[in-house]
Amino acid sequence: MSDLLAHLNPPQLAAVTLPAQHALILAGAGSGKTRVLTTRIAWLLSTGQVGPQGILAVTFTNKAAREMQARLAAMLPINTRGMWIGTFHGLCNRFLRAHHREAGLPAQFQILDSADQLAAIKRLLKNLNVDDQKYPPRELMHFINAHKEQGIRAAQAEAYDHFTSRRVELYTEYEAQCRREGVVDFAELLLRSYELLLRNEPLCRHYQARFRHILVDEFQDTNRLQYSWLKLLAGRGSVAPENEGACLFAVGDDDQSIYAFRGAEIGNMRDLQREFELPNVIRLEQNYRSHGNILDAANALIKQNRGRLGKNLWTEAGAGEPIRVFEAFSDADEARGIVDEVIELVRDGISRDQIAVLYRSNAQSRVLEHQLFTQAVPYRVHGGLRFFDRQEIKHALAYLRLIANPDDDTAFARVLNFPTRGIGSRSAEALQEAARQANSSLYNAAASLAGKAGAAVTRFVRLIETLRGETGDLPLPELIDHVLEKSGLRQHYLAEKEGKDRLENLDELINAATGFLREESEPIVDGEVAPENGPLASFLAHAALEAGEHQAGQGEEAVQLMTVHAAKGLEFDVVFISGLEQGLFPHENAAQERDGLEEERRLMYVAVTRARRRLYLSHAQTRLLHGQTRYCLPSAFLDELPANLLRRTRRGGIGVPPGARQNADTGGQTPATAGLRIGQSVRHARFGVGVIVATQGSGPETRVQVNFGAAGMKWLALEYAR
Asked: Does residue 63 carry a catalytic annotation?
């Protein structure tokens, strides 16, 4: 027993050896919460307070469940495979398999993952002849899951208007379809388990008596239904046990609650304190991960949030290095600065695997990936696809490829019915057969297709022809912008509840084109770009190359790229947090959401506490957004960090735009602006006639603001605008 407890600090020891009572353990980042959970289980088993069958341990990931089982097996000579240790979904699946008759399910019921559920909803809408533009399948899926996670069936769902009423009807039809087919989705696993326990009192009492100790990891991430399920098993629901019920041992950190968008309720922690009348809260504040300066910064930041349960991280590892804050002129300069620093760190002996670059939005990865690619630094995108491999980017590139070459059958097949335009699989097969018989491309075979299918395919071909005609004279960034709009891609993702990230990525594709033109100038032939290798063809080749071979292979050391959300639970020797600008991090949406800024601050807290030895914070004065330059203010989070912990530097010519010094002798007028002045009338190929109202920058960075009347006010880069 002394060996089991010897490695614990005093608060950890107090938590592990608590008597049989309900408890909340506030476990700060890097404070050893997994150690406490597993040692608590081992201590309960070793002291004979409970047998293996009396333990219910709930985690949020299968990885965490496997780690807990492995640690227990190393601590005790027991077989952990029979113990109830797993995720909410995994445990509910186990429960329903054992009681499928009582739950009204077939013995071999199947589980729909997210992709399967979406496909089932699409099939439902098609069978009911429902317009999937008005009721997008993914949006309907989120509507259904959100209600289930609140414990609300279709029969109890409120309808505020005709649109919501129709969605409730579709929810009802979806439930009926799932019953007919004998399938359940992830949200259904938990709801069906909870409902069975609620209505079957003998069964509920059986499990209340069986599980004497319920232990929950990452309690701050629970939603309302998960908390209700736990309360029911712990004897605090409407079905009360004859004895006192199980002891609920919850481990979590309200400062790391960052999943409100998934339904997580940070208020569950306070409800737990009140409803279970907890005598005290044990705080695990000693951090075994980070140096002192990093923790002091994290503490100062999170103290700005109101209503915290409160804790203060500390370490015996010493203060360590100051936090490096650097300001770049542009997002491209920021990426260059990060990659240059990464190369130096690797030369100094730090493994690339121990270097992470974090960002708030997936779209930010593109400029970072480009710099890593350019400087041949192996990298891996964690928890997501590389930029040019993302679905929405591949769809956009397919349209661009058809503009460059209509006979590209792969691109043609990819977007023939995306966004949906009524061309089903049979029509696509008929087109393939017509092309095979005529030995032609799909594009050329479209004219031979008759009937309704032929009309739909012909409309798609006309769309491509129209796009080719309308974009011939447009600069590359404006060409892409036009295609995204007219193809329907923007409208499609705008209708998706979680389509915002995809829209940001589409905007980033315009930025990629702008940056490509800036860095990869084409050969000039008689004053014009060589026709056989124009900007569009060159950019498509560039995109294919970057998507191809430069992400690290399996087993190869690589710099880790990820969003801050994906970084939760991970740690690295060196962490870069990029894009610390108002509107980006904290995200601009935070201002419109209740407690949105506090959740953004918790997200920043999570990012800071991923670093063990060295932390870099970076921001840019300008950032490309939708192909145009946005002038940025530093994130307010930077002002919340104690100045004595920071070492500030600058990148990109100490805040001076690249090329500005070279143009200093032109009296402020560069070759790009020669002959242009405020008040002058100009003509643009897309926006028509306008008047220059302002100018900014110099050299390659020169931009003018033009009032185009009906088309509105536009900022244009003179290097590309014709």
From this structure: no
Question: Which residue in 217, 333, 508, 599 is the catalytic one?
Answer: 217
Strand segments (E) across 139-237:
183-185, 213-216
State yes or no: is 33 an active-site residue. yes
Tokens at 581, concatenated: 């600008």
* 218 part of the active site: yes
Question: Which residue of the set 148, 610, 612, 703 is catalytic?
Answer: 610
Query: Which one is catalytic: 149, 185, 218, 369?
Result: 218
33, 283, 612, 623: the catalytic one is 33
Is 254 catalytic? The answer is: no
- CA dihedral (33, 34, 37, 42) positive or negative: negative
pLDDT in tens, 307-356: 888 899 999 999 999 999 999 989 999 999 999 999 999 999 999 999 99
The tokens for 648 are 């500030």
Tokens read off for 220: 């701050």
SS3 assignment, position 214 = strand
308 is catalytic: no
Distance (Å) of CA 346 to CA 79, 408, 482, 571, 650? 43, 42, 42, 18, 21
Question: Which two tokens mark 537?
Answer: 């063809």
Strands (E), 165-218: 183-185, 213-216
User: Alpha carbon of 276 to those of 22, 56, 223, 551: distances in Å?
Assistant: 7, 18, 17, 50
Mean pLDDT of the chain: 85
pLDDT of residue 512: 85
How far apart (Å, rounded) are the C-alpha atoms in residues 434 and 515?
Answer: 41
Cross-strand bridge partners of residue 615: 575
**Among the options 256, 354, 560, 670, which is catalytic?**
256
Q: Give the H/E segment covering residue 576.
A: strand 572-577
Can 34 be counted among the known catalytic residues? yes
**Which token pair is 393?**
């980017």
